[in-house]
Amino acid sequence: MSTAAVPRPSGPARIALRRVRADDAPAVRAAFAASADMGRQGDVSDLDSARQYVDWLLTGGREAVAITVADALVGLVGVSVDAGNRSGWVFYWMHTTHRGRSLTSRAVATVCDRALAPVAAGGWGLERLELGHRVDNPASGAVARAAGFLVEGRERAKFLIGGERVDVLAYGRLRSDPAAGTAPLPWQDA
Length: 190
Ligand SMILES: CC(C)(COP(=O)(O)OP(=O)(O)OC[C@H]1O[C@@H](n2cnc3c(N)ncnc32)[C@H](O)[C@@H]1OP(=O)(O)O)[C@@H](O)C(=O)NCCC(=O)NCCS
Fold this sequence. Notes:
By secondary structure, the chain is α+β, with helices and mostly antiparallel strands. The protein contains 4 helices and 7 strands; from the N terminus they run E-H-H-E-E-E-H-E-H-E-E. The site of coenzyme A has 20 residues, from strand 4, helix 3 and helix 4.
């Protein structure tokens, strides 16, 4: 999908997407501190570790997109790019105070539309995106489906969490799959 039709930020809430910046570290720290379920998203416990997490986001072939309210990061969509295979691994999280507003669904759909668009159309030129979520994290599955991902399989007993083995659902979305159809969020730096 072309990103040309994505609206510019507007309205009092000014919810938008932009690249993650080094000065987002305090907001990252706040999101990790706000909810115990952020624990598996990274090792962030203070400002120093938040800075290291942001450094990790900004290196190693990753695309890191901040979901922002009035330019302040409240959530994240990341894509670890496998350039050789023109594919990417997608991950996301939202500060607990902004959950349940469809912002993550819209952000992941918008980022994945751009990731799968050809370079000539302003996209990142990827042809396949992948993600996975634990079966006991249905909100993540709802986000994935809203962003046009299809379930491709079940990885049985993949993780050991609290002494129990937990299955993971594997999802994929191809460039040739139907567009998500979820209302996009605007790009602040379009
Ligand atoms: C998963 C997460 C990103 C969802 O963020 P969010 O901003 O609440 O997502 P959205 O509001 O866009 O959508 C949430 C969807 O999950 C649904 N949902 C929420 N809790 C649910 C539950 N217990 N069972 C079923 N669906 C649920 C909501 O109804 C909504 O679906 P809908 O839009 O069809 O109504 C957020 O909970 C989070 O950051 N969790 C911690 C990190 C994480 O787990 N990341 C994903 C790793 S795979």
